[in-house]
């Protein structure tokens, strides 16, 4: 179990804050392509940016992170409003949604894994908590946008999240510095996810024998 040292808590705080901002931005971009109004955009941003971490905290029996500290809630709304306005000024390509989504996946996977380890959750379960934290917000976003969740169809989405979370745990197990471990694992998830989309690398899909 990781000890809740001030430096560890600070790292967790900033990783989570970045995850909320970029994940909320991905939600806004998806809602924007659906032509939602400002209120709809904000709701999608909140569901995307806070949904996965909320479910994780409820399962772990801890106070929901954004209720305990409203700065995360404010950051999610702020990200939504900023992107909403920026999209009216600059041309926004759909590829920016994919980049923001990949960044949110990476940062939330690390945050979810770290929170779980600090609570003494076994490593394998902690890694899955990282996956759930990274993917559930996107599932909520896609369901609210009336689409099949990208995690079930898109190239190497949850897979890279889970592998990255396990790598993160492994680096910490071998006493690697937390910041270095987070950078290596986070960049690994982010870059691998983008490469998987670019080259359309995916797991085999279920199919019945004809």
SSE order and pairing:
Blueprint: H1 6-33, H2 38-60, H3 65-68, H4 71-89, H5 94-118, H6 123-144, H7 158-173, H8 178-199
Helix pairs in contact: 1-2, 1-4, 1-5, 1-6, 2-4, 2-5, 2-6, 5-6, 5-7, 5-8, 6-7, 7-8
Taken from the alpha-carbon principal axes, the silhouette is globular
What proportion strand?
under 5%
Number of strands: 0
| Rg from alpha-carbon coordinates | 17 Å
Largest sheet: none
> Mean pLDDT, nearest integer?
92
Amino- and carboxy-terminal Cα gap: 50 Å
Assembly annotation = single chain
What's the number of structural domains? 1
Write the H/E string, N to C. HHHHHHHH
Binned, the helix content reads over 70%
Q: Which structural class matches the secondary elements?
A: mainly alpha
| Residue windows where pLDDT falls under 50 for at least 5 positions | none
Count of individual helical segments: 8
Notable traits:
8 helices; mainly alpha
Q: How would you explain this protein's 3D organization?
A:
The structure is a single chain. The mean pLDDT is 92. By secondary structure, this protein is an all-alpha fold. The protein has one domain. The longest helix is centred in the N-terminal third of the chain and has 28 residues.
Concise synopsis of the structure shown:
This protein has 210 residues and is mainly α. The chain has helices at residues 6-33, 38-60, 65-68, 71-89, 94-118, 123-144, 158-173, 178-199. Helix 6 (123-144) packs antiparallel against helix 7 (158-173).
